[in-house]
Amino acid sequence: MISKDYTILAPEGIHARPATALVRLVKKFKSGISLQKGEKTIQLNSMLNILALSTKGGDQVSVLIDGEDEEEAASAIDVFFTEHLTTPDHT
Amino acid sequence: MTTTKESTRIEGIGVSPGIALGQAFVIRREAAVATGIRVNNAMEVADEIGYFDKAVSRSVAEVEALIAELANRGTDDGLDILETQIEFLTDPQLRGDTVQKIEQELKTAHDALMEVTDALVQLFLRMDDAYMQARHADIRDAGDRILRHLSGSPHTQRVYPQGCIIIADDLSPSDTIALDLTLVAGFATQTGGRMSHAAIVAKARGIPAVAGCGTALNGVDDGDFVVLDGLAGQVLVCPDAETIGIYREKQAHFAEQMALLRSLRDLPAVTGDGCAVELLANISEPDDLDQVIENGGEGVGLLRTELLFMGRDALPDEDEQFAFYQEIALKAGKRPVTIRTIDIGGDKEAPYLGLPKEENPFLGYRAIRICLDRTDIFKTQLRAILRASAFGNFKIMFPMIGSVQEVRAAKAMMQQVRVELENDGIAFDAGMQAGIMIEIPAAAVIADLLAKEVDFFSIGTNDLIQYTLAVDRMNDQVAPLYDGFHPAVLRLIARVIEEANRAGVPVSMCGELAGDPLATRLLLGMGLRAFSMSAVSIPWIKQQVRETTLADAQYVFEAIRGLDTAGEIRDFCKNN
């Protein structure tokens, strides 16, 4: 099992657009992948659950990955978080 | 129209500015109704689950066809929404909950899905974030699409008359995408708000829209003549000829303003002879930043923080304040943001502070005077602002400064908070500048002394005018005496700018005078190079800056020195 912490810095938090891309990424892997925010943990394969978590800019989250392809999944998800969620939008 | 209907005015939320006039086209949603049918045995349960899965795959195919159609039309407007809808349609939680209801409560796929969708819609409607609340419409939309396939009712294609104004309960994301927006002059919806799809699409396309009109909208019939004011958030049903005339004029004025905005937005605010001027905006909350950027603002010259403290029962704690400032920092990015510490007291009340009623609240216990006394409130705010400064480009500004010792006390307090943060190992911007508002005449008079203490000045003209002229502009009987062009006010402003420039302290103006096009040349002539105003004023001031030269501005300033009254000065600015 792999666990990694992130601080969301995208000003909008995890909105529908990145959530769609994230769900699609997660579905490519066999591992169980979940997202933890505070006391709540949700499966990352569900758009409804990601949005219901209402993650905003500044929130701390952890990604938990468990399964045969966890190494691969963790690095793909790390790239996704770095590119889309943990960089403030400095446009 | 066959009957003469009484004129009515419906109030809603203006979600996309502009004026539209046209005939109503009414869309009423037919809500799904539960069948109440029970399934009898395991085989029927399996059948129902099968129907559900089939309806989902048909729905997905339908959305994929829509995506292909978008590609054919050569647009990707709405593509995001459709891609997201596929994820809602195939969501494992949606299927899991529905299947559970079929298996355990023996409901049909139709009824089970209806209940699951309703519960999800309620869940999202109760969320505290406006964006997430608005997602209820996406979930409803996905649920309705599957339900249509379960009940076998085909999707109806509507025909919209040219130039119509759509009147609806709410427009689903799918409705919005399917609309041929070239035919639509405006939208009015019963529900929804700034974050709903109809609002976002309307805004992106420059179509006036009003949301949240409530059930009053039921009184509008197909073909009624309707006027929609997307800025004021009003819908006028069957207005009289005179009203129509007024709104046609407003429509023309708005079009002119938009044209000006478009032509100036990406041009720099530079005078004819090459002097760059900084145009900033005054805001109160994170969402206001969108308008700042749209109007070509380079940053925020005044972030009021009163909104955090008003309309509630208790003080906001450090974390709540931090979240507010951090959201601003992240949204503003590299743009500078000047945060004013709380300016409560005066006419801005916060009952939970238990402040005594005063005879003269504007001359009483307010702003920095409260902060230097109730240091708990002040230090909490300073800590939250400093913590958030690590995420953006912040400056801090103290209001209602009347003396040098107040500045020193406020800065000492800030220094204390910085040491505490350092000791706690919490990040902040150590280089964050600290400045003051010049809004009390005393501060204007001792600008030379204050300049030695601070990193910048911001002239607050609203209070400066009221205190200099001893006029309460909320009092109708004396309001006409309130005038920013009074020679006394202009002399004070000129003095502040001159002393700031002499000391090399940056000076800006954040009062209403900064957004008055009539004053722009005069202020430039005095040496002002940074103006902060409501976002919508920026294009007008930019136009003034670009059409003048420093030489011309200085000439205006020299010339008005010889004039005796506010009226004469205004006339000179108008006519020269």
Automatic annotation (TrEMBL), chain A:
Domain of life (superkingdom): Bacteria
Matches recorded under CDD domains? PTS-HPr_like
Q: Which Pfam families match?
A: PTS-HPr
Q: Which GO terms describe its cellular component?
A: cytoplasm
Q: Which SUPFAM superfamilies match?
A: HPr-like
Please name the PROSITE patterns in this protein's record. PTS_HPR_DOM, PTS_HPR_HIS
Q: Does the keyword Cytoplasm apply?
A: yes
By its UniProt entry, which InterPro entries does this protein fall under? HPr (IPR050399), HPr-like (IPR000032), HPr-like_sf (IPR035895), PTS_HPr_His_P_site (IPR001020)
- What keywords tag this UniProt record? Cytoplasm, Phosphotransferase system
Task: Please state the protein's primary subcellular location.
Answer: cytoplasm
Biological process per Gene Ontology, one example term: phosphoenolpyruvate-dependent sugar phosphotransferase system
Look up keyword Cytoplasm and say if it applies: yes
- UniProt record similarity statement: Belongs to the HPr family.
What is the official name of this protein in its record? Phosphocarrier protein
Q: Which organism does this record belong to?
A: Dyadobacter soli
From TrEMBL, chain B:
Q: Which Gene3D superfamilies match?
A: Phosphoenolpyruvate-binding domains, Phosphohistidine domain, PtsI, HPr-binding domain
The UniProt record gives the binding positions of Mg(2+) as E439, D463
Annotated active site: H197, C510
One cellular component term from this protein's GO annotations in UniProt: cytoplasm
Which UniProt keyword terms apply here? Cytoplasm, Kinase, Magnesium, Metal-binding, Phosphotransferase system, Pyruvate, Sugar transport, Transferase, Transport
Domain PEP-utilising enzyme C-terminal, chain residue ranges per copy = 261-548
| SUPFAM superfamilies, A to Z | Enzyme I of the PEP:sugar phosphotransferase system HPr-binding (sub)domain (SSF47831), Phosphoenolpyruvate/pyruvate domain (SSF51621), Phosphohistidine domain (SSF52009)
The Enzyme Commission number assigned here is 2.7.3.9
Q: Which Pfam families does the UniProt entry name for this protein?
A: PEP-utilisers_N, PEP-utilizers, PEP-utilizers_C
Residue sites binding phosphoenolpyruvate per the record:
R304, R340, N462, D463, R473
> Mind listing the GO molecular function terms for this protein?
kinase activity; metal ion binding; phosphoenolpyruvate-protein phosphotransferase activity
Top-rank EC class of the record's enzyme: transferase
Compartments, record wording: Cytoplasm
According to its UniProt entry, one GO biological process term is: phosphoenolpyruvate-dependent sugar phosphotransferase system
Q: Its family?
A: Belongs to the PEP-utilizing enzyme family.
Known PANTHER family for this protein? PHOSPHOENOLPYRUVATE-PROTEIN PHOSPHOTRANSFERASE
- Which protein are we looking at? Phosphoenolpyruvate-protein phosphotransferase
